[in-house]
Amino acid sequence: xxxxxxxxxxxxxxxxxxxxxxxxxxxxxxxxxxxxxxxxxxxxxxxxxxxxxxxxxxxxxxxxxxxxxxxxxxxxxxxxxxxxxxxxxxxxxxxxxxxxxxxxxxxx
Length: 108
Ligand SMILES: [Zn+2]
Fold this sequence. Notes:
The protein is mainly beta.
């Protein structure tokens, strides 16, 4: 299985596109495609038919679309946007911030 350095519930910053500079929480990760869904990033308005209409009264739902992981960078809680490294200890592979060296545990 492919594994990405970005995990669900991480905070990431967008590097490209209309949402460049925005930060958001990772809602979903798609390892096969190498994309992530980031809260409030790449929001598209979808017209919803009356049958499936649930979220909004006007028939328009806002929904995020996936963005490539290479277009986002993880935000380290200590020092801000940073590259991710890995530290292997036993069977555990821990993500670390390459800038300040602190561990970046995966939030559940
Ligand atoms: Zn850091």
